[in-house]
């Protein structure tokens, strides 16, 4: 006889292996410098990957590409091949809302793929604090230009995250 209690479905990432690698974090100020450098260079040295799927409210950091975490595992070899083909990208930085779940998981998977393919001159990183940290730093500590480097920035949306 069934007890009638329904168990929670497993999280989306349970269908994939846990990442082996634990990539380091890049602070927002360092990413800002990297974006500025890219804008004055003819070749990108980094790739910024936004792994949010349906929680894009408030905007995204310009120069980032959106590859939702739920599909990332299937795209790893393609992403590695694209990065390798550029020959100039040395850092791939992942972020989600706060970079506590999806961002670190995807960065770990990507570093695992780099290791598997024997690519040593490219490293995977996490944006410290995710997009929320980026906006907080831009609004509270400056520089304001961080917010100007966002596409679709909606100031009112971010008010809810400014405490603490």
UniProtKB/TrEMBL annotation:
<protein>
    <recommendedName>
        <fullName>Rhodanese domain-containing protein</fullName>
    </recommendedName>
</protein>
<dbReference type="Pfam" id="PF00581">
    <property type="entry name" value="Rhodanese"/>
</dbReference>
<dbReference type="InterPro" id="IPR036873">
    <property type="entry name" value="Rhodanese-like_dom_sf"/>
</dbReference>
<feature type="domain" description="Rhodanese">
    <location>
        <begin position="42"/>
        <end position="143"/>
    </location>
</feature>
<dbReference type="InterPro" id="IPR001763">
    <property type="entry name" value="Rhodanese-like_dom"/>
</dbReference>
């Amino acid at each position: 006889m069934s007890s009638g209690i329904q168990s929670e479905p497993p999280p989306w990432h349970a269908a994939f292996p846990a990442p082996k690698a634990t990539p380091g974090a890049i602070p927002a100020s360092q990413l800002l410098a990297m974006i500025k450098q890219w804008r004055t260079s003819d070749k990108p040295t980094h790739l910024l990957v936004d792994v949010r799927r349906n929680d894009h409210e408030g905007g995204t950091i310009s120069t980032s590409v959106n590859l939702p975490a739920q599909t990332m595992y299937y795209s790893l070899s393609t992403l590695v091949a694209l990065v390798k083909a550029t020959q100039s990208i040395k850092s791939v930085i992942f972020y989600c809302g706060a970079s506590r779940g999806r961002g670190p998981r995807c960065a770990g998977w990507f570093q695992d793929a780099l290791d598997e393919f024997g690519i040593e001159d490219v490293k995977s990183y996490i944006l410290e604090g995710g997009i929320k940290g980026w906006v907080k730093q831009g609004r509270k500590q400056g520089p304001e230009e961080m917010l100007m480097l966002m596409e679709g920035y909606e100031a009112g949306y971010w008010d809810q995250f400014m405490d603490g």
